[in-house]
Amino acid sequence: MDLDFDIVDLDPVDHPEEGDTAPDFTRPLVNDEFWEDESLASVCADSDRVVLVFHAMDGAFPATYIWNEIRDRAWHEQATVVGISISTPYEHKQLLKEREIEGDYRLFSDPANGVAQQYSIDMALDGMAGIEEPRPSVFVLDSNRTIEYVWVAQEWPDFPDYDDVEAQL
């Protein structure tokens, strides 16, 4: 497959680091049946380990690649895995269905990109005035939201080292 795009170096950002408490937020959390407002704190409190995956808008090839890899590696068997992007709950329902991850994964909807701003990983989209999305990132959290592992993209497109994430699980 020949993809025609340029790799773009991203500016350094001051994101939360290992040992920090991940900022809490409340957004619509989409599952295979419905969506409702839920906080990250409540997701973490119900799990020993949470993998929080910031990804490109649904339908963009990076989101497809990331969720296919996570699905194929069955991360949900080792941790609670939740995604977050600027996509709407309706788009998230479609992504869950298309990626065949319904029932195993849930996705937070953050159309204004406020959570990425809280985490200092927001980025403007080239050629799309006024539109931004989260920089691809992965945070592994314990039940108290303490960050055990963090990966934040340094270029676009960029993908996590899935083996490194799995080593944390």
TrEMBL record:
Domain of life: Archaea
Keywords: Redox-active center
Short name of any one Pfam family annotated for the protein: AhpC-TSA
Keyword Membrane: no
Domain Thioredoxin: 16-169
GO terms assigned for molecular function: antioxidant activity; oxidoreductase activity
Protein name per UniProt: Peroxiredoxin
Lineage, broadest ranks: Archaea, Methanobacteriati, Methanobacteriota, Stenosarchaea group, Halobacteria
